[in-house]
TrEMBL record:
Organism, scientific name: Aquarana catesbeiana (American bullfrog)
Any one GO biological process: protein targeting to vacuole
Superkingdom as given in the UniProt entry: Eukaryota
Protein name stated in the entry: Uncharacterized protein
Membrane-spanning segments: none
Amino acid sequence: MCQYDPGHVTSMLQILEHYRLEETIQIAQKHNNHETLAYLLEKKGDIQAAFEVMLTVKSATFFSFTILQVFSY
């Protein structure tokens, strides 16, 4: 599901109750599904790691947006 429908993985995991958390984290990492990874890390209790994942994604998005603005002038 991470590979073919990554946008729905988090919502599916929120519904499901029984899955192997560590294995699911590894799968989310492998497929670079950052939203799901942050959700799973938070569920695991690793709030700091979840925050770092989202911060990294947002920083990369901001950097890309800034570069596009600079080169569009």
